[in-house]
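A sample copied in:

***
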Amino acid sequence: MRWTMGLAAACCLASGALAQAAAPEAPASAPVVARDLHEETQHISVTVKDLYGREETKQIPVTIFRPDGAGPFPLVIMNHGRATPDKRAHQGRQRFEPFSRYMVSKGFVVLLPTRVGYADTYGDFDPEASGSCNAMRLEPQAQATSDQVLATLAFAKTLPYVDASRWIAAGQSAGGLASVATTSRHPDGLVAAINFAGGAGGDPERSPGRPCSPQRVESLWGAQATQARAPMLWFYWENDEYWGPDNPKRWHQAWVDGGGKAEFHQLAAAGKTGHGGMNFDMDHWVPFAEAFLAQLGFTKTGLVPRPAATSFAKVDEVDKVPVNNTQREGSYHRFLDSKTPRAYAIGAGGATGWATGDWARGRALGNCQQRRGAPCKLYAVDDDVVWAP
């Protein structure tokens, strides 16, 4: 295994023909390391086969986020989506920071493998290729992705702060396909799995809402369900331009009819396409996840509470914000100019962070804390100052 600390958070993810849609993380303008989540990257060796039986061994990066303390902590293995070939070479190391931050706040270690065929391992060997649109063969892809999940699990068992007897498989899009496949193999210690907009064969540009051979996914998941043991939580969105509103319902029915257990939620339309709703619709899916995970004994909340308003200042009294003038004139004015919901956070050593829109309080705290690794507090939420010195 090769050790690398703090690799850049590069993510250039897009959609297209036969794409299983990578999650829309924005490209980073500079390397990002979430110091407060003890972010690091290690490399592990994995061996996989492609559609044609060709086998290769590669080194893949695994991003790690974890709570403070020695642990051992329960584990989440989170799996990314799949961009089109012209974008895949630039689909860098996966982080899913908002999701990871949420799970770490609940007391989990999060491991995110960037699978073979992406980033540094992009090339002429693609174990996730599934053939032509009308004759997709999904079994080899499902096998290859879940093989890498299990290799990541084996690596996790070597980490002293991980309790691999309690772990969750999760994934978005093609990563959702991976989490379903992993559940069907019922590995030791798997207590649950989460599928965010999982599927295969989507083409939102040329065939929005009408993926290639959706019956292939239906057939695969119906067969895989017969071996599944752990309960699953499935999230889809009404305006998913990869799968449309109806295919996910049929896929879920096939899973249940095959003997699998899955709680299904199709959430209201979000964004231009709900396919990436895991990243930008947390305000709506997190409460369902809280309830699902609490039933499994993971009762520590990951919700960010809204503090009560205080009398410290009015939100537009810029001169009272306990930061320097540069920050008042910069980030705080941008916060004031933004729409609600919004939040502004302050930390030790001059750290600040703000966010607007979905999961604003959590993202504001994360933007503040990741810079120096020290805890931050909310200063303002929407139109209220909540600061208590």
The first strand starts at residue 2 and ends at 4. The mean pLDDT is 91.
